[in-house]
Amino acid sequence: MSAHKGFCVIACLLAFSVGMLCGCANSLSGSSTIQITPTSAILVPEQKLQFSTVVDVPNPPQFLWQVNGVVGGSPSTGTITTDGVYTAPNTPTAQQIQISVRNQPATATVSIFDPNHPDPGSVAATQNPLVAAYTMPVPLGASVQVQFGTDKTYGQSTSIVTPPPAGGVVTVLVAGMRASTPYHMQATVKLPSGSPAVDNDHVFTTGAVPAGVIPNITTQEFGGATPSPGIELLSLDPDQGGNQLTALATDLSGNVIWYYAIGAGEWPFPLKLLPNGHMLVVASPMTNSQGDITPGGVNEIREIDLAGNIINRITIPEIDAGLQALGSTIQVESLHHDILPLSNGHFILLANYPQTVGTTLVLGDVLIDWDPQKGPVWYWSTFDHLDYSHNPYGTTDWTHGNAVIYSPDDGDLIFSMRNQNWIVKINYQDGRGDGSILWRFGPGGDFTLPGQEAPIEWNYGQHYVTIQSPNSSGIFSLMFFNNGNNRLMNSNNVMCSSPGVAACYSSVPVFELNEYTKTASVLWEDNLSPAYSICCGDALVLPSGNIEYDVAYDIFKPGVSYVQEIVPGTSPPQLIWQMNITGMLAYRALRIPSLYPGVDWTIPPPSASVEKAAATNSK
Length: 619
Description:
Elements: H1 3-18, E1 34-37, E2 40-43, E3 48-50, E4 52-55, E5 65-67, E6 70-71, E7 73-74, E8 78-80, E9 85-87, E10 97-101, E11 107-112, E12 122-125, E13 132-138, E14 143-149, E15 156-157, E16 168-174, E17 182-190, E18 196-198, E19 202-205, E20 216-221, E21 231-237, E22 247-250, E23 256-260, E24 266-273, E25 279-285, E26 300-304, E27 310-315, H2 316-325, E28 334-341, E29 347-357, E30 360-371, E31 375-381, H3 382-385, E32 401-407, E33 412-417, E34 422-426, E35 437-441, E36 463-467, E37 475-481, E38 507-514, E39 519-527, E40 538-541, E41 547-551, E42 560-567, E43 574-582, E44 585-592
Parallel strand pairs: 2-11
Antiparallel strand pairs: 1-4, 3-9, 5-6, 5-10, 7-8, 8-9, 10-11, 12-13, 13-16, 14-15, 14-17, 17-18, 17-19, 20-43, 21-22, 21-44, 22-23, 24-25, 25-26, 26-27, 28-29, 29-30, 30-31, 32-33, 33-34, 34-35, 36-37, 37-38, 38-39, 40-41, 41-42, 42-43
């Protein structure tokens, strides 16, 4: 070894031991690489951030951190310790700051956010003409929210969005705007200190919705009362086909303010808003009046953002492969009617599949606990837990599940099966349960009703069950839309519309269930007679205490689905708002606070309806 090389080695070893700077401390083999993380950051003045190195060799040497080529940095560009802790300068600077290690090509960039004069954001169109993309730089530890409206008073806002872990450019999708309308929008960045940094006002003009696709929707208010705030999220079934929008949201005047251009030959079965601000869609192929599937339709589950970009999807082949890995022979025929997001990120999928019972091919249901990382981790089949002899509507579509909800008290599932006239509680226990049926609610089930209520008050062909009490076990309340199909009217079990008895009708009841005594009673009911909706529909209690329900298929009003909001404290309940959807079936129509989880909108009536001239579906 030469004297020079020996001196360098000794000097470097000494430098490492005392933390001094050494020019030969960064040597790596020629094939080795180094990366710096994070690769970029946005910081406010004096904010600190830890940078690290990733090297593909064991026991790498100590690296000398630099800021804009200066080891240790400087007051004007920020300083960095020997351990890679960077401190931004105490005053904003417009110059680009580069973090590196001596004698290595890898770099990271830092931008300094000026709280008093933030770099302006930008607004651009998306593939959805009613959705804008608002882009804004946001520093580490901050958040951003966009307010928007038809003037500078704004009035509506998005969710609060956080940047990447080291700060970065954030794009907020702004949705909830009417077509062909100028909107003002402005972002506010909430800094780590809690103080705001406000962007300039931007004007964005929404595009036009393609001609001929807007459903024929009208609304009406009654009695001078104001409907509860919010918007309507609609899952529409075109029934006879056509090209009109089926997955959409409207304001309470019926103006379309958001939609998802679902694929040709498909409709949402159903559409749900997720806690992360995305939409969850069970895409189902359209069928004609003969039940034939429209070409081009796909049956799958999609998670989409508000602009309609597909984030994730679940396909039937994936589900079948996952079930096979669990040892199941189930081959899913279709995904349908509902999907339940769980707080752990899983989904409860509802699907059906055929099985031969004796010599008869029977269509039953399966619930599948889907882990987005692992696939199916638990499943429950109607064929394993129900007696096939119980088939009030025949065997072709034996169970026809249509709603599944979670019971927080015990981690179980509550499942509505229309063609069983039953709502059942399933021993799920957050995926640890054996799937046994804990109880069956409905005619011929495990509960009894008071004599004057049975059998007329039982659920018949029900839809959309919800829990209406703080608890979900013991003694608690359930609400649902009771379609009333084949309702039994008296103690002789005479069916509705039979000679000498009243006509069939639908209703919206709230029941109190006692799991200990297996007794139940009606706490409240809105008898919708003469309305008789033979399928679909939903009912929910709004935050105001009013009740909204969807009468999807009233046989006395063919071709029109209507949604009504009533005040339940009067007798009969007072109707204060109604939406009519002509030419399409409203499988579900739900009042939600806004298109953003945790954000409530109070949308004033528009000065003009820009979408009322839409063509009517010729159903």
